[in-house]
Amino acid sequence: MLQTDISFKRIQQLAIPAIISGIAEPVLSATDAAVVGNIKEFGIESLAAVGIVGSFLSALIWILGQTRSAISAIVSQNLGAGKLKDLNNFPAQAIYFNIALSIIVLFSTYFFVEEIFKLLNAEGLILTFSIDYYNIRVWGFPLTLFTFAVFGLFRGLQNTFWPMIIATIGAALNIGLDFALVYGIEGYILPMGIKGAAWASLVSQAVMAIMALIFLLKKTEISLKLKFPLHPEIKRLVNMSFNLFLRSVALNTALILATREAADLGKEYIAAHTIAFNIWIFTAFFIDGYGAAGNILGGKLLGERNYSSLWKLTKKVNLYNLGVAAMLVLIGLLLYEPLGFLFNKDEKVLSIFYGMFFMVLICLPFNALAFTLDSIFKGLGEMGYLRNVLLGATVFGFIPVLYFSKYMHWGLIGIWAALIVWVAYRAVALLIKFRRKYIPLIGN
């Protein structure tokens, strides 16, 4: 059997398309935020609503979207072990599993949106806008989960090109529709405000899901015909997904608490936090591209039991991502003023944002290590350990710092200090685990 190629060229072939496809979801949310934040009337309230709903929807997507990583890990490990043909009816079962989960969550939140957003400190016009925006965007949730499952299959097959094409077209369509539907086109489309942004995202998600279906059927031999009995790997998928579910609950508890505390400071503060968060999420998914390469190749190397190459791969992708983080920090230092102005023109909002943006930049090198190792560990199937790390980072890192900073009246800087501690905790814990478990296996 040929050994897996972990050359610079091969890593770039996987990472660059993964970067482009990975940033599609944050581009959707960031475009919504930037466009509605510049509505002449109620721009601040619209931006705040998109921030609150965006954080909640991101939580749902990240919680259930983790099945993509589990699917990718199982497929890539079987590919490395030369057992790909044994998967037969697993892909279809995994996709339907994802869709069923998304429908359950959709209906469990749809009828309680007002209560949910009140818990996030939305009130008055911001609450009204949040409900309007969510009630449209939530129907794209099953579509996104289906697309993510297909992306997981492609990743497991060592292919990030088709997901890139799908995501790029979806993001471009969303940007065009945002401007057309939010502001309107004179003589053709009436301005729809924040509802227009929600419809733009929903249409884009539908187009991406249709394209994912077409590419899956045309570019692979995978059938979507559901057959029984359940494949043995479904049990492992459910176990991995459950651990990732618990992990993502902890992850999103931190992000939602951060949003809630920002909203409690006032509408200008949640608007500034929304700008910072959208930039942070964009950089996180940008960084995740090399993590995806580590995920894809790492799972295959584990299937081959090639631990020496696994260690080399881990060093390479972490080094590349630290370089990416340094580049993003430099861009942030040079462009932070126009970045803020892109989202909102209110002087108080921008003043708050400019006063805390340095915290976002400090977080980026920690993101590079944490997110890269996180992706590699998903490829290795280490979902239980990832769960424990996130629980520890949230309970012992993020929450104590968040509420200590609140007691000290540090405002948004305190919230972002808690986020930095949270990410750094994860990076250190994953480094220790890799050194203890996988480096001793080299030569075995």
UniProtKB/TrEMBL annotation:
Domain of life of the source: Bacteria
Any one Gene Ontology molecular-function term assigned to this protein's record: xenobiotic transmembrane transporter activity
Keywords in alphabetical order: Antiport, Cell membrane, Ion transport, Membrane, Transmembrane, Transmembrane helix, Transport
CC annotations in GO: plasma membrane
Membrane-topology descriptor: Multi-pass membrane protein
Protein location: Cell membrane
Principal location class: membrane
UniProt record similarity statement: Belongs to the multi antimicrobial extrusion (MATE) (TC 2.A.66.1) family.
NCBIfam families, per database record: matE
PANTHER family for the chain: FMN_FAD EXPORTER YEEO-RELATED, MULTIDRUG RESISTANCE PROTEIN NORM-RELATED
Protein's name in the database: Multidrug-efflux transporter
